[in-house]
Amino acid sequence: MDSSRVDMYLVANGKYFEAGHIPALRGELLGADESKWAYLQALDLKDPTMMLVVGFLGGTLGIDRFLIGDTGMGIGKLLTCGGFGIWAIVDLFLIMDAARRKNFETVSRALA
Amino acid sequence: MTRRWLYRVVALGTVFGVAAVARHLYVAAAHGNASGVCLFHAATGAPCPACGTTRSVAALLQGEWAQAWQHNPLGLVASAALVVLPAVAVHDQWRGRDDLWRAYTWVESTVRRPAVAVPLLLLLAAHWVRLIQLHP
Predict the structure, then answer these.
(1) Between A and B, how many CB-CB pairs are < 8 A?
(2) What's CA A24's distance to the chain center, in Å?
(3) What pLDDT score does B47 carry?
(4) Which of A82, B37, B55, B101 could lock A60 by a disulfide, CB 3.0 to 4.6 Å apart?
């Protein structure tokens, strides 16, 4: 893909990814075919800040984990009252990075 | 979720689960009642879908199946999980296998299919409504 286009994408969507993943993501985007561009725009990326809000409201029910696609962990939280209340609090600190990591996986899978 | 984290989560969950049941049995014996740890219940006053699981597992340990069902049917699932998951995890570590991880990924991909997810969600909603009606 054209490098100016890749940089434009990274500037516009930087908040969806971990800083450490950006170089790898840039490499993947540069190596991807031009035809993936429209597909890339339509990808459903999860906003980490929104996931934090969901974690506050529905963390004990595991809704944050379900939303980012961590279904197994979501079930685990749901069936234990948010991991005895502890996991729900710990997840408030983990969920943003988890969402960013899932976004990176989503884009990687789409480009592969 | 990576493979290594799954084993850590199962180990932590087992420790906390057993500790919660032991604490419940001890506190219930001493004071007749035990306070919960659920944030949802503390915040809203209504039970979350998993509230009563500790009581349920404790009742099951004392052989009272009807009581266990009454507190929370999910306690039966939790009891099975408390026995099966650590056993499989220990077996995996011992024999260098990854049965638990493969089962986890299989459950994740299966539960995401709408044909499975929708009935499960409806069942969960019905279970939650019953729980709220029983313990308002």
Answers:
(1) 66
(2) 15
(3) 84
(4) A82
B40 vs A contacts (CB less than 8 Å)? 60-61, 81-82
Is the backbone of residue A69 left (phi > 0), alpha (psi -120 to 50) or beta? left
Alpha-carbon gap: A88 to the closest alpha carbon of chain B (Å): 8
Q: What is the pLDDT of residue B136?
A: 67
Q: Mean pLDDT score of chain B, rounded to an integer?
A: 86
Cα pseudo-dihedral A40, A41, A46, A47, rounded to 10? 130
The SS3 call for residue A16 is: helix
Q: What mean pLDDT value characterizes chain A?
A: 87
- Please check whether residue A90 touches B, CB under 8 A: no
The one-letter amino acid at B122: L
Per-residue pLDDT reduced to its tens digit, A45-74? 899 999 999 998 888 888 999 998 888 888
Handedness of CA B127, B130, B135, B136 (dihedral sign): positive
Shortest distance, CA B78 to any CA of chain A (angstroms): 8
What is the amino acid identity at position B79?
S
